[in-house]
TrEMBL record:
Gene3D superfamilies: 3.30.1460.20. Keywords: Actin-binding, Cytoplasm, Cytoskeleton. Functions as actin-binding component of the Arp2/3 complex which is involved in regulation of actin polymerization and together with an activating nucleation-promoting factor (NPF) mediates the formation of branched actin networks. Seems to contact the mother actin filament. Signal peptide: none annotated. It comes from Arachis hypogaea. The lineage of its organism: Eukaryota, Viridiplantae, Streptophyta, Embryophyta, Tracheophyta. This is Actin-related protein 2/3 complex subunit 4. It is found in: Cytoplasm, Cytoskeleton. One of its GO terms (cellular component) is Arp2/3 protein complex. InterPro entries: ARPC2/4, ARPC4. It comes from the Eukaryota.
Length: 184
């Protein structure tokens, strides 16, 4: 009887932990989405120093009057998002949660995979901002050519890494089961 009670307690604690993680993730992602939605009102603004050039001011930082205050959204020490905005560009830098060694490896490989294909994604920077895992640069041209909500949805990388982790765990469980069938 006590082992059954212990098992029920363990299951309820695991469910509570999962529910708590999900309940803290939703407001974090909602805050990022709302901030990005407000910050993506970019307009065409030529460079003030070079005629007929349109450079992202958030990268150049040559004119402080064209830069807005950066916004830092933190879920915890391991997960944070930095949103830097200027009149014609927006840079989003993400630090992705890496709770264990498997998540660390999956994150490293997944982000390397993405950075190798940065040209195909258009908004992805090859080299992230110092202290972050991945960075995106969105200009006014991206906002004109692409749908705003699709650009915002592209930021959700945690879900991809969680799905990869579940896939690896499932495959490992199947391999272990097949291997151990030999000894039964």
């Amino acid at each position: 009887m006590s082992s059954t009670r212990r098992r029920v307690t363990e299951i309820s604690e695991a469910t509570t932990t999962t529910t708590t993680k999900a309940s803290t993730l939703r407001p974090y992602l909602a805050c990022i989405r709302n901030t990005l939605d407000a910050a993506m009102c970019l307009q065409n603004f030529p460079c003030q120093e070079v005629e007929r050039h349109n450079k992202p001011e958030v990268e150049l930082k040559s004119s402080p009057e064209l830069l807005l205050n950066p916004v830092l959204i933190c879920r915890n020490e391991a997960e944070k998002c930095l949103i830097e905005t200027s009149i014609n560009s927006l840079r989003i830098s993400l630090k992705v949660k890496q709770a264990d060694e498997l998540e660390n490896i999956l994150t490293k490989k997944f982000l390397r995979f993405l950075s190798m294909r940065a040209e195909a994604f258009q908004v992805l920077r090859r080299k992230p901002v110092q202290g972050y895992d991945i960075s995106f640069l969105i200009t006014n041209y991206h906002c004109e050519e692409m749908q705003k909500h699709k650009l915002i949805d592209f930021i959700d990388i945690d879900k991809e890494i969680s799905e990869l982790k579940m896939s690896v765990n499932t495959r490992g469980r199947l391999v272990a089961t097949e291997f151990l069938k030999q000894f039964i």
